[in-house]
Each structure stands twice: as C-alpha cells, then as structure tokens.
Amino acid sequence: MAEAIKNRYEFVILFDVENGNPNGDPDAGNMPRIDPETGHGIVTDVCLKRKIRNYVQTVRVGEKGYKIYIQEKVPLNVCDRRAYDYVGIPKDADEKAIKAEKKNHPDWDTKIRDFMCSNFFDIRTFGAVMVTFVKAALNCGQVRGPVQIGFARSIDPIVQQEVTITRVAITKEEDKEKKDTEMGRKHIVPYALYRAEGYVSANLAQKTTGFSEDDLKLLWEAILNMFEHDHSAARGKMAVRDLIIFKHDSVLGNAPSHKLFDTVTVSRKNNTLPARKYDDYDVSIDAEAIPSGVTCKRMQ
After folding, report:
1. Half-sphere exposure (Cβ direction) of 205: Cα atoms closer than 13 Å
2. Burial class (CB in 10 A: 0-12, 13-18, 19+), 133
3. CA–CA separation, 87 and 105 (whole Å)
4. Closest Cα to residue 204, out of 142, 119, 143, 257?
5. Cα–Cα nearest to 164, from 142, 181, 147
6. 87 or 132: whose pLDDT is higher?
C-alpha cells in the first residue's frame, strides 16, 4: 500500500444544473430536494459520492486497488467474499468452524480490514460499514474514511418546476382505439448553482485506510468530472464549475475549517433578475483572511 497523505485538506465544490433534476426526493414524488424553510435546493452527500464512485469505476476499471465496494445492483457480500478468500476461509465453512479457527488467527479482522482498504478505492476514501460480512463470526466492523462531503445547498432558492410531457406510444394494446398519446411529468430546476463543502483527514488516512497522494489526485479528478459521464435527460446540463482546495501544512491542520469556508463568497451580480447561468454569479476568495500554514488552490 502506498504511503498515506501527510496534509489535511478542506474543499468547496461549486456545481450547477440547467433544466434538470439534480437529486430527486422519493418522499416528494421525485421532485428536486428542497429545504422547506428557505426554499433552497439540496443535493445529498450520498448522491455526490455515487458520482465520484461511478467516475473512478469508469476510468480505473480493472486496475488493482481501484475496485468499488458500493456498486449498483451488486450485493455487498459479493465483495466481502474476496476478503474471505484472502485469509483462506473456505466458501462452505460454517460460522462455528470460523469461530474455532479464528482463535488461531486473532489478527484476521485487521487483515480483512486492511485488505478491503487496499483493494477498494471508496472504502479507502469514504470508509464503509462492513458488519454484513458473509459469516457473522468474522468482520472488520466500521471503517471511518478520511474524506467526507456535506450536503450541497443552492446559493439561491430554487424553482421546482413540473413539466407535463406527452408521448405518441401508448402502453397497453387494448387502449390503442381509445387514445393516441399518453401523458407524463418531468421535474426540473430551470437553473441553480449549488455549493458543497468537504474534508480530507490525513490523521484518519494514516491511522486506518492508507488514503494516498495518488488517491487524492484521483479524488480531485473525479470531483471535477463527476457529471461528465453521468448525463441524462433527467439531470439535464450539470457541471462542476469550481473546486477550491485548502491545504494545511500539517497532519492535524493549521486552522478551523469554518474559517476557511468563510473566505469563499458566492454572490449574485444582479438581484433583480433570476439567475440563469454561472456568469450571473461572482465567486471570490478573501486571500488575506486565510490563516498562515494554509494555502489555497483553485481547479476549474
């Protein structure tokens, strides 16, 4: 396993959506998620991590150390099986036999944890709860990942627009004499700019997962491109517009994260008209307010 990172980071992601639904709410008929008190749009951390996982799986397919643990339509136990094979547990071993053999191998849990971290990028990055292993007698428990991302929130309140659509193909053969078209609905946001904030802990990377400099480089790449291979009619035109990275000179950090986030300001250029493009906003960084021991870098 490569050497773990030695610096703490915080980062700000700015991304936008045009005529699309960035993150539907299943409790609200798949309408775009919204804060009911303020009207601001929300995109969950789970949604953003899914895009990052999908990007890594696309560009690093087949490469050792870059498998993805949480995949669409793949049971977790399928991935867990790899760890059992690694420590030499027979596929047909029952729980009682594993418990008996484990007495001779007290380091099995640690070995399994290290194996999963070294082989699965998303475990090494975001962590995982792996208490669902194939055999309950053996598991590596919960791995706390060094990279965490909060909910994204729109800069301005959003408009949840419901658009009625029609199609010329009908569903049931018996209806062909009654109607020529069927109707449906799409939920969109005409335009919104979202801001998400994240953290990278060198302390957790060194203690647990081994998240490395190569992993960090891939993370930045995945964030910048997380919508590029995810376009669909439902999500419309989505793009990461800015990635602002704060790098600390030390493992534990040189300044509180909230002070760094406060140096990034996003404001409207014209408040009399609704925003309909990224250029309707100004993004500024107060360089003088960044504490010593921290450097700032922008990636677009």
Report:
1. 27
2. buried
3. 10
4. 143
5. 181
6. 87
Report d(CA 285, CA 262) in Å as an integer: 9
Tokens 């194939």 belong to 134
Which two tokens mark 249? Answer: 């000179």
| Residue 158 near residue 40 (C-beta atoms within 8 A) | yes
Cβ count near 125 (within 10 Å):
26
DSSP letter (8 states) at residue 21:
-
Delimit the domains of the chain by residue range.
9-158+187-299
Buried b (16+ CB within 10 A) or exposed e, 241-256: bbbbbbbbeeeebbbe
Q: Which residue has the higher pLDDT, 178 or 206?
A: 206
Cβ atoms of 266 and 239 within 8 Å: the answer is no
Distance CA 10, CA 247 (A): 7
| Count of C-beta atoms within a 10 Å radius of residue 35 | 14
Residue written as token pair 């070294």: 118
Summary mean pLDDT of the chain: 90
Q: What is the pLDDT of residues 21-66, one digit of tens each?
A: 999 999 998 999 999 999 999 999 999 999 999 999 999 998 999 9
pTM above 0.90, yes or no: yes
Q: Which DSSP string corresponds to 246-266?
A: EEESSSS-SS-HHHHHTTEEE
Is the pLDDT assigned to residue 101 strictly greater than 80? no
pLDDT for the residue 133: 56
Share of the chain above pLDDT 70, in %: 96
Average pLDDT estimate for 136-148? 80
